[in-house]
Amino acid sequence: MSRETPSGDELLAMLAALASPHRLRIVAALAEGRSYVSELARRLRMNRPLLYMHLQKLEAAELVVGTLETAPDGSSVKWFDLAPFAVTLTPQAIAAAVPTLTVPGQKDEDKQ
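The structure corresponding to this sequence follows.
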């Protein structure tokens, strides 16, 4: 998260990204330190295409960061780290985030 108090859209993306047991397991594994896909797949006993799908969702929500690194032999490996995040989920935090939600098709003057 880019801010301590996320916008409605950021909060929604984060909650949606964390609303999966697979993605929670990935976050827990990355809490132990950075890893690359093949290593994570072995540790989590998950196939790589499924793992990539979940990592993309976490990356889109800015909960993980992927970095492509090239080895001296020219091969590339994408490493993943947890992004620092902390959100206190309270009724007040939700109430503050709701006015900033983007609703598809809604015009700015309709938000009020």
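The mean pLDDT is 89.
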